[in-house]
Amino acid sequence: xxxxxxTNQIFKYLSYFVLILLAVLGLYLWYxxxxxxxxxxxxxxxxxxxxxxxxxxxxALQIFQIxxxxxxxxxxxxxxxxxxxxxxxxxxxxxxxVLGSTLAFLLVRRFGKAFVTNYIDEGKHxxxxxxxxxxxxxxxxxxxxxxLPGAPDDILSMLAGLSEMRxxxxxxxxxxxxxxxxxxxxGAFSFLKHFF
Length: 196
Known about the structure:
- The chain has 196 residues and is an all-alpha fold.
- The protein has a domain at 59-192.
- 79% of the residues lie in helices and 0% in strands.
- It is built from 9 helices and no strands.
- The longest helix is centred in the middle third of the chain and has 39 residues, at 73-111.
- The chain crosses the membrane at residues 13-31, 91-108, 141-163, 169-192.
- Residues 71-189 form the VTT domain.
- This is TVP38/TMEM64 family membrane protein.
- It is a multi-pass membrane protein.
- Belongs to the TVP38/TMEM64 family.
């Protein structure tokens, strides 16, 4: 029990630290104009100067936001499209989300409920645990939710890790259902870009 509490505290302080770091980084990026000029943002990421390193950094960020869900996934999905274009953005978003979600699933399988309680408050945690009691029902809910844009994929992946769902089933659902929601984000952003 003491070990679980200590793990929870470490995740809690790590989350606070990352949140402060992101706030400082956000202010800095705003100050230098990265949110208003795409050229500035691309030069920071190094797409032109480091074309191989930029996708690696993006992959790491996307996987990180799944494991420590402080940054909303919509921001990183949009960043992928803005930085790499709709096609490469889609590919990078898709592969990094599948990898990150699978890693979240495996970490929960390894560390159990202690890992999940760092991200879900007690009330929701109890409610979500009821979802996974019925294996077939949860698999259907999971598949439908992954298919829809805006679903909390990171939390769902962690819940799947707590359920009896097999890793193979989890990956198949991700591979089949996830492209639609990512394509919706990519397409919507590319369409809106012409009007703003």
